[in-house]
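Q: I'm building a small set of examples for a reading group on sequence design. Run inverse folding on the following structure and report the sequence directly after it, with nothing in between.
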């Protein structure tokens, strides 16, 4: 059984390790596995009516595929994490935003489509950036999350020393000076 749990954990972790940014669009009910999956995303955007709950304790088990390991790191508030994990209480998008679990709440008349539209806008903004810089930033943020500032700075220096050898920085600088859209090489 433990090997099945580990395999499932690794499946979700593969989303977190994906070199490309992952966006979670949350609408309706986001319970249990929905929270596990969304915590592997880089950005989480929710509709105001979205309801969340870490329900595993209500069915007699500890959340086993990522919530207990990731939610505290995502929010920086272990007391709140213990509250929602130990009680399985439902919470809304505004509370999730206030605690840092999600990065945006998008409502209004658009419904689910409005949340998807916001996610697409975010993706379009990021896709215009240097792929080297985007993937490097994601790698450095994820790597540094569980390490000291000193280790993060050292890894960043090594990473950027290699990445500065690409043409992306020069292309970005030329574009910003001339108000043109930068053109980057594909990775």
């Amino acid at each position: 059984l433990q090997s099945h749990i580990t395999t499932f954990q690794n499946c979700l972790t593969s989303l977190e390790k994906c070199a490309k940014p992952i966006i979670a669009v949350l609408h309706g009910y986001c319970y249990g596995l929905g929270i596990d999956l969304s915590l592997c995303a880089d950005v989480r955007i929710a509709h105001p009516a979205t309801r969340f709950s870490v329900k595993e304790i209500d069915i007699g088990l500890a959340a086993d595929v990522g919530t207990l390991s990731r939610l505290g790191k995502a929010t920086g508030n272990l007391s709140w994490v213990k509250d929602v994990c130990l009680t399985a209480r439902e919470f809304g998008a505004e509370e999730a935003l206030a605690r840092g679990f999600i990065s945006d709440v998008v409502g209004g008349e658009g419904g689910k489509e409005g949340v998807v539209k916001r996610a697409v806008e975010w993706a379009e903004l990021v896709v215009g950036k240097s792929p080297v810089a985007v993937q490097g930033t994601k790698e450095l943020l994820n790597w540094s999350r569980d390490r000291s500032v000193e280790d993060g700075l050292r890894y960043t220096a090594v990473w950027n020393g290699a990445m500065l050898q690409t043409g992306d920085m020069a292309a970005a600088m030329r574009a910003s000076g001339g108000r043109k859209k930068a053109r980057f090489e594909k990775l």
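The mean pLDDT is 91.
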